[in-house]
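Now for one specimen:
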Amino acid sequence: MPKKRHQNKYSKPPSVAPPILSTSSSSRTTPEQHERSVNQLLAELRRTSLKQNGVQSSYSVATPTVPPSIRQILQIPETPAPPPRRTQRRDVNGRRAPPGPPPPRSWVSLAQSRHAPPDLKTDAVGRIQHWPLPGAYAPDPGSLVDQVLRRIALDWEQQRHWNQFYLYTLPSRLRTTLLSYISDLYQPGLSVKDLRLVLAGPAEEELAQYGIEKPDVCKLNGDVFCLDLAGLLGKSLTLKELNELLFPPKVVVAPDLQDSWDAPEPISGPMKLLPNLTQLSLAVDPGTGPPISWKQLLSLASKLPTLTHLNLSGWPEPSLTPNAKFAKVASPLTGGAVQYGGTGPYSHNLDGDWSEAILVLKRLSKSLYSLDHLDLTGCGDWFPALMKESDADFTLDFVDWVGDWGKITMLRLYSGYALTDDSSRSQITRFADWIESATAVEKHIRAQRSGRGRWITVEKDTLSESARAFVDSQQFRGTV
């Protein structure tokens, strides 16, 4: 039976669409439409779709510009100004930030992260604001002197060896400023050898090797009035080392037979390293090192009666036995346990006893009777000791703001910290307590002087409006 053969009418797809799919408008084609490329057709479709949706195209046609005089004659509208460029985000150091959203706060501030190392947390939390001494020389930020001193401080590990024969020959104000830069920028901190190198030069044996005479300390440091050692005590320097550096022990010299009775007697022992020192900064960062000894401070203060400016920012409460706060001993009379030190764990909170702190401050005031400026930033926990009284042997002990410290005209009682938007309620309450204590000290000093002494200015913190509203609401709840 023969097979049926079907002959296909079309062997390949037609190049032209069937007439059923073509519209009346598209049936009328012109040679120009066939010559257009695919990109032109797609661009036309995009424009027509935007017009149908009611959205104008954002592509602007570049038109040639015309001079203003011809534009006014031809009445051509002015070309619109280009849109302003987006401001670039910068980091703290002024560099361009990477594209994208800013990093989370926990990444930027590692101290707020619970995964941060404990040493980093301690350094961030324990640091307080240190105010510079009012008479200290400070170069302009970004100046040549500022950049050079900053570079020397950052490279101090090498500079103290390479330039050891030149550092002590710098002008006095540059040497003191260099010491403050090093204490702030050099992480290990200044040692007593570094201080002696900058203030007195290398050892006499090293100078003799190169035929250099030993400098006269009185002439070399005769115009040194300020010494900023903020952040060094308890880190790389102790008060005992500083005391021995500033006031070397006297050397007993055997008397020699003199040729004449009228000849001056030889000086026994070395001279003072800084004979005209009047401003001293011993600020520390609380909780970042071993406890500071008030006993050593009293020993140093007894040799500095001409000191006019003192900075004790961050110092702990005055105590002669700080390590015996929780220690008890058996009484030989009663056999019961008694407090070993002068201050116990509940002396301030429950008993209101500030006798030891008042005793230490009283001894300090009798030694530094020439003080004009006292900075106690970060010492808010023992502000009450500046105005309290304690019972002594048939007398009352208190800090005398009329006699011993009657010359003080500037008292700085800042907390050293700043409240942020993330501060907790307990931090705001403690901050407000410090301000209240500073205000009470200011009123006490002015009432004690009451026209018999100089006018005193007390610098302290202030609460913001939101923090003040919170404190007022807490006080109102407490009264209700």
Q: What stands out?
A: Strands lie at 226-228, 279-281, 309-311, 328-330, 337-339, 373-375, 390-391, 396-397, 410-412, 457-459. Residues 42 and 54 are 19 Å apart (CA to CA).
